[in-house]
Amino acid sequence: KDMGDVEGEFSQNPITIELIDSDSTTLPNGKTISKEEWPSISVDEFINRSQTAVKLVSNELKIPGFVAVQAMIRCLVSPQGVDDCRAWLNKRFVGMNEADVLALGRAPGLFGLRLAFPGTEDDPGLHNVRIESFGGDNRSIFMEDAAVYSGQIALDQWDKIENSVQGSYDFLTGPVMDWLGGLAD
Question: What is the mean pLDDT of residues 2-8?
Answer without folding.
Answer: 33
